[in-house]
Design a protein that fits this description.
Length: 417
């Protein structure tokens, strides 16, 4: 009798768990697919594309001055970073020279936004690990920065301070004491903030050795901003290709080893970098106040004259700015016939910091997902883009409002099945 062969069966030990696009731990819609072995993350897949606002298309129907208001609304937290990158792109294309005083003012507003953004992030990070007392403390500090923003620009969030060829408002001598008073407040409270985040046992346990992004992965995946600097990569547009007044200021890369003497590339190091940058931003604003030159704040105050110059321009330009989350790039192209751009494209920093989530999350526990994801300070709404690819070069395809609405309904139905 023939002996029966034994059949080996393998049991799958992992299972998949979806998180998003709507989830209590996510402030914006993004879809994660995790492969889990017990509590350990084995693999990660990230899907974007749940938010499309058509800002770039809308901008191409408007002139550059009108686009500034759209650029501010790409991201509420970076409402200064996007318009300055766009303005620099237009200035580059049209060969517009910005007055020296305006360049210093631009640095002040940029660094003030960095303080606002990093302190807001610190509160959100504390919230993600259940430390809501710190959330309220940091946001109380952020209110001071918003009060100063309102004092200098007239607005708290969408500042409307940037103009093509300069800035809209000056900082006069009688306004300087208010700026110095707020900076003193931050310096007086910085040690408290540093102590809470770097010395607290709870924060250390949840952040040290968690969400590690190695130096090689940070380079290979093109991470930017505090995310890459926390891994030891010295990359910062303000230093690498100094613009505005940064070339006149004392500024250097902020990496974790500046404080601790070592680089681990974990969530804790990303906390360190942002705290160091808050202190650095205070110093940069003080330097600008001390070195501020006199002169104009706009190269051309008459908007019709400015637009006439833009209309005659046939060319392209790129504007780069080191936003709080990392480098933001805007690209414009003019055809020499219209004052509205032929093309306008924006690349937000989160676009670069999505892929680094994968090595950062692999090997971690399910409970670490919120703080690891939040450690890059993601902004999904300013990252999403829609691209239509048509291989038939002889045909032209237009996605109109009705068809986009129909496709959105179909997608929603598929997701809710």
């Amino acid at each position: 009798m023939k002996k029966k062969e034994s059949v080996k069966t393998t049991t799958k030990t992992t299972y998949q768990i979806p998180i998003g696009p709507i989830h209590p731990a996510l402030k914006e819609p993004v879809m994660f697919e995790f492969e889990i072995d017990g509590e350990r993350i084995v693999d990660v897949d990230v899907s974007l594309g749940h938010v499309h606002r058509g800002i770039e298309w809308a901008g191409m129907q408007r002139n550059p001055v009108q686009i500034l208001y759209l650029a501010e609304r790409i991201c509420g937290i970076c409402s200064y970073s996007h318009p300055i990158a766009f303005a620099r792109a237009v200035e580059n294309a049209c060969d517009i020279e910005v007055p020296e005083r305006a360049e210093y003012l631009r640095v002040i507003h940029g660094e003030l936004e960095r303080i606002c953004s990093h302190i807001l992030w610190a509160g959100v990070a504390a919230h993600e690990i259940g430390f809501d007392t710190v959330l309220f403390l940091t946001w109380e500090m952020r209110e001071k920065a918003l009060d100063l923003t309102e004092y200098l620009t007239g607005n708290r969030v969408t500042k409307a301070i940037i103009m093509i060829g300069g800035v809209r408002r000056d900082i006069t001598s009688d306004m300087v004491p208010k700026v110095q008073e707020t900076l003193k407040y931050f310096k007086d409270n910085f040690e408290k903030l540093r102590h809470i985040f770097l010395d607290d046992k709870t924060v250390r346990l949840r952040s040290q050795g968690c969400g590690v992004l190695t130096y090689d992965d940070a380079l290979k995946l093109c991470a930017i901003g505090p995310t890459t600097r926390a891994s030891g990569v010295k990359k910062d547009v303000r230093v690498d290709q100094a613009y505005a007044a940064y070339g006149d200021l004392d500024i250097d890369y902020m990496t974790p080893d500046v404080l601790t003497g070592e680089v681990n590339g974990d969530v804790y190091d990303r906390i360190i970098v942002r705290l160091l940058e808050v202190k650095q931003s205070i110093d940069l604003i003080e330097q600008c106040l001390d070195k501020m030159p006199s002169g104009d704040i706009l190269s051309e105050p008459k908007i019709p004259k400015l637009l006439a110059r833009v209309k005659k321009t046939a060319g392209e330009g790129i504007g780069r700015h080191e936003a709080p989350r990392g480098e933001v790039i805007h690209y414009v192209k003019f055809d020499g016939e219209n004052d509205n751009p032929y093309t306008w494209k924006a690349r937000a920093p989160t676009y670069n910091n999505i892929l680094p989530w994968i090595p950062m999350l692999k090997g971690e526990q399910i409970a670490d997902i919120p703080i690891v994801a939040a450690s890059t300070d993601p902004c999904i709404s300013c990252t999403n883009r829609v691209t239509i690819v048509d291989n038939d070069k002889n045909s032209r395809y237009i996605l109109n409002r009705e068809e986009l609405h129909r496709m959105s309904i179909e997608k929603t139905r598929r997701l809710t099945r």
